[in-house]
Structures are given as C-alpha cells and as structure tokens.
Amino acid sequence: MIGPLIRNGIISDGTNYVFAVLIGILFGYALQRSGFTNSRKIASAFYMKDVDVPVVMVTAIITSSVGLWGMSLLGLIDTSQMYFLPSYLLPMVVGGFIFGIGMAVGGFCPGTSLASMVTGKIDAMVFVGGFLLGSLLFGDLYPFWDKFYNSDAHGVWRIDQLFNINLGLAVLIVTLLGVFGSLGMRKLQYKLWGRHD
Amino acid sequence: MKKKLWDPIFGGMMIGLAIILTFFISGRGLGASGAMTDFAVWVQNLVAPSLNQTSRYFSRYVANGANPLFDYLVFMGIGIMIGSFLAGIVSRDLKLEVLKGPNISNKGRLWYALTGGLLVGFAARMARGCTSGQALVGGAELSVGSWAFMLSIFAGGFAVAYFVRRQWL
After folding, report:
1. What is the ipTM of this complex?
2. Rg (CA), chain A
3. How far apart are CA B131 and CA A96, in angstroms?
C-alpha cells in the first residue's frame, strides 16, 4: 500500500472526504488540548511570555517533515503524485507580515479561531466574522492586487534547492534548528518573564 | 476546574501526525483558511451572487453552478470544529466568554478581534494559505515561500505587539 492513497486508487473520493473529517477531528482536538483556543495564550507568543505556540508549530513541522521525507525515502509514498505548495515569494512575505499583525491584534489564526469559536469564546466568533469579510474583500477587489498576487512566482521551490544541498541534509538542518530554536525560545521566555505565569 | 494542557511537544507531534496522514492519504496538506473562504463565498452567493460571478478570484469557486462548500477543506474544517468541541467537553472548557488581558474591556477586545480577523482574512488569501495550510504544511514540505511566510508572520506580530499590549498583558 503506497501513498497517496487517493492518487493510487486505493480509496474513493468519498472515503477521502471521510478521512478529511477524521484528520480534522485529530487536528482540532490537538489544537484545543494544546491551549490554542485561548487568544491570550496565542498572543503571548509575541511578547515571548509563553512560547508554547511556536514550540508546537516547530514540533509539528519537524514531525511531519521527517514523516513525509522519511516515507518517501522508504518508498512508502510517491511524492510525484502529491500536490506541493508553490512559492510566490513577495506576496507571501507581505501576506505573512499583515497576517502577523492581524494575529497580534486579533489573537487568532484561522484554524485556532474555528477551534475556539465552538468552545464558546466570543472573541473567536467575532474574529471569524472579520475573517469572512477580509477574505471577501480580497476576492471582490481582486483587480487591485492580482498583479502583485501572481508576482515573484517560483513554482515548487524547496530549501534544499535554494541552498543547493542534499534533501536529507536540509531535513536534518531544519530539525536541529527547530530543536535548538525551541530550547532557546523557552530560555528567553524564562529570562524575560520568570518561570511562573 | 479545567484540565491541564498537553505538553507542547506532544501537541506538536499530534498535529504533525495529522499532517502526515493528509500527505499519505490525500496527497496534499491540511488547512483551515480555505474552508472559511469557501463559506464566505457561499454566503456571498446567497446575498449578492453577481459579486462572485464578476470576481476573477471567486468565479472559479462557483463555476458551472458548483457549490463552494463541496470542498476537501470544508470537510476538514467541520472536523476541526468537532474535534475542538469534543476536547472542550473532555477538558471542561465549554463556556461563553471573552478571553483577554485584565486591562481592556470586553467591547474593546471584540473590536480588536474584528480588526485582526479582517487583516488575517485578507492576508491569508494574499499568501495563499494560513498558519496551518501554508506555514506548517509548507514548512514540512521545505517550501521556501512557506518558510518566508512563517518568518514574516512573527516579524509582523513582534512589530505591533508593543502597541496592542494593553489588550493582552
């Protein structure tokens, strides 16, 4: 059984949608149990007062990166059958900067706002309302930024290709940077805010 | 009494596992913002369908009478809400409330939430994804654009944190 299961005809479209719900349940459950339904906890990351959010993010990336490229190495998944995200560098940098401002102001990202809303957090419900308006604004006024949105296109572009290094080495470097980065962030948190909060 | 949170390393590994499963089963990543935009387009289709048809960005969502809600990411978004609700029951954290720091009123906090939501909703479309579908999934794929997006999120957040500290600290 080689992945991706949907591409290799092992499961049907319908089964794929069932899995989408099940994976969503795992994701939502993990978000809530990690404390990500609390806007104040999320925003605390931007003061280095509680670095749980970046530590969880880094851990999730390392886990899934080692998982993906490890499966590929072992022949368990055919990456040529996968959809990879293309890089539009400048729109992603500008989008990311606005996104970060929005997170510090609003206290959520999209996934955490959905997860928080259903646990009764009113600030999450309002944030979701703002999100819906914001994305409509983008699409309805698309001619104002469609040129920029499609600029600086690099297709599928990976870090190992950028630095011209071996893919496995890139995974190893990301893993090490993630581990030491997480330890460093935690140390900084304790230094700035003490061990109790 | 609320239950103690998961250790962040364990939480991160569980989210990583969810991403691995989408790779292996569906050949793509997970995501959250896509479903929310699908829903926004669906609502706009009820109140002002002409806006969807004339928008070069949204027209593909409703091409040939397609329902924008019939999308992989919408199924996933429903799952996210079910999962978080279940976790809320388990951890006794289902409560109507506004979360914020002690130095701001509820009303003030909600204005910030609305403004932040607007910015994030716009920016997620500009960046072709959010913290889940772009930063985490693309980060695992080692995508240059995704890593640039993630670093920019923290740059933007740190840049304005001082000015909104009244809300959180």
Report:
1. 0.97
2. 19
3. 9
Cβ contacts of A94 on chain B, cutoff 8 Å: 126-127, 152
C-alpha A68/C-alpha A158 separation (Å) is 14
Pairs of residues, one from chain A and one from chain B, whose beta carbons lie less than 8 Å apart: 546
Within an 8 Å CB–CB cutoff, is residue A181 touching chain B? no
Q: Which distant-in-sequence residues (6+ apart) come within 8 Å of A53 by Cβ?
A: A36, A41, A42, A44, A45
3-state secondary structure of B33: helix
The pTM of this model reads 0.96
Is B51 in contact with B86 (CB distance < 8 Å)? no
Residue A88 three-state SS: strand
For the stretch A42-59, pLDDT in tens is: 999 999 999 999 999 999
Look up residue A100 and give its two tokens: 């970060």
Q: How confident is the model at residue B3 (pLDDT cuts 50, 70, 90)?
A: confident
- Chain A residue with CA closest to B90: the answer is A33
Residues 6+ away with beta carbon under 8 Å from B2: B91, B92, B93
The structure tokens listed for B4 are: 């103690």
Residue of A nearest to B33 (CA): A110
